[in-house]
Design goal:
The chain is an alpha/beta fold and 287 residues long. It is built from twelve helices and nine strands. Strand 5 (90-93), helix 5 and strand 6 (115-118) form a beta-alpha-beta unit. The longest helix is centred in the middle third of the chain and has 29 residues, at 166-194. The termini are far apart.
Length: 287
């Protein structure tokens, strides 16, 4: 298919690359034009100066930007994607955003004859680099059936969770689980060190039992080594948790631990850790 990708950040750059390598004729757009130039040189695709130009004649348009406002700007703003997409095409949004904006753009797309699928991803930069992301989608089943084989090019699992907004709601559940797991792991490893244990040996032992988790396997050792200059930034997690807590106000869900961990991340930001990996929660326990 002819595809477009809007937003070449740490995730989108690799995701767009997988589309091109899979044989889909891909055109990219990024606010920083040099990034588009670099991508086109590396992967052999095309670049455009505006979202509208990038999506011209595309069958499926992908997008991965920062937040709700960024998404609205690239879709509905001057020279936005919806102004250039052909009738019958599909917009797949891989941004982690609110369910509200997903439903808003779904409705706006319907008016233009364009299908909109909210499709946030999990797996981090490593998942994007390896083409092994988990994608949770919301939207119409017929549009999803067309888009799924293309999404598969950069994913290991792609699931339609329900109507518009369901993908974003599922991603919120994902982020709640990650935040809670990292706080528990931080307290456990800090306890281990205070108790005089060999924390790496502790990790080796307990990772073979019921305490095992992705965070333990992939972040436990770096937490012990006090290494955080990589991965999913604290700023991004706070953005995601703000979306969660706002949605919880609407649906009545009680989120006492999530709200508390969000404030712990605020402490990490105050320590200068805005760009540290989210596993840096352990740092605030060592002050």
């Amino acid at each position: 298919m002819k595809t477009a990708f809007l937003g070449l950040g740490v995730m989108g750059y690799h995701m767009a690359g997988y589309l091109q390598k899979a044989g889909h004729d891909t055109t990219v757009y990024n606010r920083t034009a040099a990034k588009s130039e670099k991508w086109a040189t590396e992967f052999g695709g095309s670049k455009a100066d505006t979202p509208a130009a990038a999506v011209a004649d595309a069958d499926i348009v992908f997008c991965c930007v920062g937040n709700d406002n960024d998404l609205r700007a690239v879709v509905m703003g001057e020279n936005g994607a919806f102004g250039g997409m052909k009738s019958g095409s599909i917009f797949v949004d891989n941004t982690t955003a609110s369910a509200e904006v997903a439903r808003e753009l779904y409705a706006a797309g319907k008016e233009r004859g364009v299908s909109f699928i909210d499709a946030p991803v999990s797996g981090g930069e490593a998942g994007a680099q390896n083409g092994a992301l988990t994608v949770m989608c919301g939207g119409d089943a017929d549009a999803f059936a067309i888009a799924q084989p293309v999404i598969d090019t950069f994913s290991r699992a792609v699931t339609l969770m329900g109507p518009s907004g369901s993908g974003q709601l599922t991603k919120m559940v994902n982020q709640v689980c990650i935040a809670g797991a990292l706080q528990g792991l931080s307290e456990a490893l800090n306890f281990s060190e205070c108790a005089g244990l060999d924390s790496k040996l502790v990790l080796d032992v307990i990772s073979k039992g019921a305490a095992q988790s992705w965070q333990m396997e992939n972040r436990g050792t770096t937490m012990v080594d006090d290494q955080f200059e990589f991965g999913f930034a604290v700023d991004w997690m706070r953005k995601d948790l703000a979306i969660v807590l706002s949605e919880a106000e609407n649906n009545g869900a009680q989120m006492p631990v999530t709200a508390l961990v969000d404030q712990f991340y605020k402490d990490v930001q105050a320590m200068g850790g805005s760009r540290w990996d989210t596993s840096s929660l352990i740092r605030r326990l060592k002050r």
